[in-house]
Specification:
Elements lengths: L3 E3 L8 H18 L3 E4 L3 H9 L6 E4 L18 H18 L1 H26 L6
Length: 130
Amino acid sequence: EGLVIDLTKASMIDSTNLGQLARVATAMLNSRGEKVTLVSNQDDINALLTSMGLDDLFNLVEESINGSPSEKIAIEPPSEQSLARIMLAAHRALVELSSANRDRFQDVVTLLEQQSAIYEEAAERPQSSK
């Protein structure tokens, strides 16, 4: 029951993905009062999830319940501007989880904010016609 995210085939996970997981988990907790189940059987990924404080947001399990239906989600690659916004939101989510994460990622958030501002300024400039 509920949302299940299966990481058993993941070979690595970066900070943007960690932040996106945190955003999903927080949204589910706020909207439905439910924890998302995160399936991961890899010790290094589990240690990373725990060190980032994600074990407080998720029900972490090592194997999926047999017979549970699964649905793969096709994702279109985002534009550079959209990707910058996604990365910024993901890292802000990590910073909000703990003071240790704030120390780890505040410089990244600041850099991504600057990059996002550049994209926004470029989008607001009128395009010159040739």
